[in-house]
Design goal:
Elements: H1 15-21, H2 30-43, H3 50-73, H4 78-88, H5 93-100, H6 104-112, H7 119-129
Helix pairs in contact: 2-3, 5-6
Length: 138
């Protein structure tokens, strides 16, 4: 897919034309997902002909299947999610502790899974990382 934003009014009007710009096949990664969503977004809200509607229907099925699979794969423990977010944001146990307003030792124990997160910790983490608090409750 090109790096240009698709212009809905310039999309092909045939199934084959749409297929040439985005092949319909199972989605296996975030790049394929983003490309498929770009086409979905471009087609959304347009008055579609029969061929465009059929293409959109198949693409929607593929996107839904990927989202379902990703949702099932994303079931990780709260401490694994915390470790990942800390690693991605270069937060050590002591920096985590500072962010949560707890002792350095507790920050290290939280990352090691030796202590459980409290509701207050979960609230602060969700706000800091802009994620759902549910992520840390698994």
């Amino acid at each position: 897919m090109s790096t240009q934003t698709l212009q809905p009014d310039k999309l092909p009007t045939t199934y084959e034309g749409l297929f040439r710009i985005h092949t319909l096949k199972p989605i296996h990664d975030s790049v394929g997902y983003e490309n498929a969503c770009e086409i979905l977004d471009a087609l959304s809200g347009l008055e579609l002909n029969k061929e465009q509607s059929e293409y959109l229907e198949v693409l929607s099925i593929l996107v839904e299947a990927y989202e379902k699979d990703c949702g099932e794969m994303a079931k990780v423990s709260g401490v694994d999610a915390l470790r990942y977010l800390c690693e991605e944001n270069n937060l050590s146990g002591s920096k985590l502790a500072e962010m949560l307003g707890v002792s350095r030792a507790l920050g290290v124990k939280l990352l090691a899974g030796e202590r459980n997160l409290t509701i207050a910790h979960i609230g602060k983490l969700a706000e800091r990382f802009k994620v759902s608090p549910e992520l840390f409750i698994k």
